[in-house]
Design brief:
This protein is mostly helical and about 190 residues long. It has eleven helices and no strands. The longest helix is centred in the first third of the chain and has 18 residues. It binds zinc ion (ZN).
Length: about 190
């Protein structure tokens, strides 16, 4: 397995060198992300992560792809490739908080707020984008249609108890919530 991973990395490095920043090549790799065969998908993932900020417009286009696996991979590549600090990526990711697929919405929440993976050397447009995480959690997160994800995002508000809006939202869920699991989650979040 180790050997296989090294071979894929090597293949990806060659792909990046040969592509020479040709957007047509990048778009071809994004199409490969829809395939289940790891021998095709994994080198494409690695190449897109290694290629640097010139792939960002192609990845942003991939966020609109009709194929679920392509959209999901593009979200993860923006995160793991360090591109998540690029203002264009942040803008393009925000509408995907409403993607019809729950695991994509979950990945987008991660990528938007993942400081560990963001790498400014991999970004081109580093105009600071102020994301109001509490406002997003209140406006979008606590209304997520998926019960498990909604529960996780309600719990996330517990990390922002110094913010009055977070506290009030959790208190409202405790008082008026109809789903016992969510009321319990809100209670636990309020305890910090
Ligand atoms: Zn991350």
């Amino acid at each position: 397995m180790q050997k296989q991973a090294q071979a894929w990395m090597k293949q990806a490095t060659q792909m990046v060198t040969q592509a020479g920043n040709d957007p047509g090549e990048f778009a071809g790799w994004v199409e490969q992300l829809s395939l289940r065969d790891p021998h095709i998908a994994v080198p494409a993932i690695c190449a897109l992560q290694q290629a640097g900020s010139t792939v960002i417009p192609t990845l942003i286009a991939g966020l609109q792809h009709p194929h679920t696996r392509v959209r999901r991979n593009c979200v993860d590549i923006i995160d793991h490739g360090g591109y998540g600090g690029d203002a264009r990526c942040i803008e393009a990711l925000l509408p995907l908080l409403h993607d019809p697929i729950p695991h994509i919405r979950r990945a987008v929440w991660h990528t938007l707020f993942c400081e560990r993976c963001q790498d400014e050397t991999q970004c081109e447009d580093i105009t600071p984008v102020h994301l109001d995480r509490v406002a997003l959690l209140i406006e979008v997160g606590v209304n997520d249609p998926n019960p498990k994800l909604r529960q996780q995002l309600i719990a996330d508000l517990g990390a922002h108890l110094s913010d009055q809006r977070a506290r009030e939202t959790l208190e409202t869920i405790v008082k008026t919530g109809s789903d016992p699991a969510l009321v319990t989650t809100a209670q636990q979040a309020l305890m910090g």
